[in-house]
TrEMBL record:
Stretches assigned to the Gfo/Idh/MocA-like oxidoreductase N-terminal domain: 3-121
Pfam families: GFO_IDH_MocA, GFO_IDH_MocA_C3
Gene3D superfamilies associated with the record: Dihydrodipicolinate Reductase, domain 2, NAD(P)-binding Rossmann-like Domain
Protein name (Swiss-Prot/TrEMBL): Dehydrogenase
Top-level division of the source organism's lineage: Bacteria
GFO/IDH/MocA-like oxidoreductase domain boundaries: 129-284
Keywords, sorted A to Z: NAD
The keyword NAD appears for this protein: yes
Keyword Acetylation (UniProt): no
Organism for this UniProt entry: Paeniglutamicibacter kerguelensis
């Protein structure tokens, strides 16, 4: 019998429903909840047989087997705590929320109720990330000692400065909202979590643009264009912009690995570059799409730039985010139905938020290092056991 799946929030990430709506093949989206008229109208068009409501309580009482929480970030915890309290296995889009207190409340609710919690860090399913991790785990570069990530967000003006993303009250910062992906990947490749973090950042470009518009009547598809260039010529930005458009953070992980992450929202190109340095070599990706390359150097040279000792082509995979989205939802639905290990982790999701929140605090004060508060041992043990309570 198909799992009955609900969706809360039918906006920017609503496309994930397509991977959960497989009537006769394992799961079907039977209900959508959205507080906006636009969201409900869009859901009704795409899922004409589903029940559409603005009342979360109605969804909680609908006898669902799983739910996707796809609301704006600052509503993740508010909704997820209620779905967990209702005993519904819950997929929560990343970041888990925009404050560390809210995130910890979600984890504590999942622990107390025993309800399965899954966080949508889809990059753990992206071929480029998985292949880099496989190379590292093979021992090809020795023990990891440093991870660097440069994120060129070429669509930053259209993606993040024309709607709710541009406001601190909704995101805390783009270093958290956008960076949570990369912070999680850094942690995964390095095999540890951030223990201490510092950062600098600035609203260097978009804050000076005077063309502003309330875009709540539109969606990104209504304004996105590669012709919106250069960044200083952008128009119709959000009325309030108080998040940084360039940020840089440094991390010391709990296993001694040093890491850095740089994010810029006004570059012409859009991709991520990771460099991982170990005791026996280093790897670096040149592009992050199918057909691009991951290169590994193991031979010492004094001739400046030399060709890599190993080149690995990034695999192709169908579906959004380089094939990550269908794998992400498939894993969640399997987890909701059967339990067992998953590539994503609520503890890792918490670690990404903690690093992003503390980095934001650092960059908005004096740039000094901030210590990440530890998660309680009982919660760590519970989630490490794939959300199974220890035998008494």
């Amino acid at each position: 019998m198909d799992l009955k799946v609900g969706v809360v929030g039918f906006g920017l990430r609503s496309g994930l429903y397509e991977h959960a709506h497989r009537p006769g093949a394992g799961s079907v989206v039977t209900m959508v909840c959205d507080t906006s008229e636009r969201g409900r109208a869009d859901a009704a068009k795409k899922l004409p047989e589903a029940r559409i409501t603005a009342d979360l309580g109605e969804l909680l009482d609908a006898g669902l087997d799983a739910v996707l929480v796809l609301t704006p970030d600052n509503q993740h915890a508010v909704v997820a705590k209620r779905t967990l309290e209702a005993g519904i296995p819950t997929f929560c889009e990343k970041p888990l929320d925009v404050t560390l207190d809210a995130v910890d409340e979600v984890l504590e609710t999942a622990f107390r109720t025993g309800t399965k919690l899954y966080v949508g860090h889809n990059m753990r399913h992206m071929p480029v990330v998985r292949q880099m991790r496989e190379i590292i785990e093979s021992g090809a570069i020795g023990a990891v000692k440093a991870v660097w990530c440069r994120h060129f967000v070429g669509n930053g003006g259209d993606y993040y400065f024309k709607d709710w993303h541009a406001e601190r009250k909704n995101t805390t910062s783009l270093l958290l909202q956008k960076g949570a992906h990369d912070i999680d990947v850094i942690h995964w490749l390095a095999g540890g979590y951030t223990q201490r973090v510092s950062a600098v950042g600035d609203l260097a470009v978009y804050g000076d643009i005077e063309s502003r518009r309330d875009n709540t009547d539109r969606r990104m598809g209504d304004w996105f264009s590669l012709q919106n260039w250069p960044p200083t010529e952008q128009t119709d930005l959000n009325p309030v912009i108080d998040v940084e458009d360039i940020s840089m953070m440094q991390m010391t992980l709990d296993n001694g690995v040093l890491a850095s992450y740089q994010q810029c929202h006004f570059t012409p190109d859009y991709w991520r570059n990771y460099t991982v340095i170990g005791t026996a070599g280093r790897l670096e990706n040149f592009g992050d799409d199918a057909g691009n390359l991951i290169k590994v150097w193991n031979t010492r040279s004094q001739d400046g730039y030399v060709e890599a000792d190993l080149e690995v082509e990034i695999e192709a995979a169908g579906g959004g985010h380089g094939g990550a989205d269908p794998r992400l939802i498939a894993e969640f639905l399997r987890f909701a139905a059967e339990g067992g290990p998953t590539e994503t982790s609520p503890v890792a999701a918490r670690a990404a938020v903690a690093a992003g929140v503390l980095a934001t605090e650092s960059l908005r004060t004096d740039g000094s290092a901030k210590q990440v508060p530890a998660l309680g041992g009982e919660l760590l043990a519970y989630f490490a056991a794939n959300q199974e309570r220890a035998a008494v």
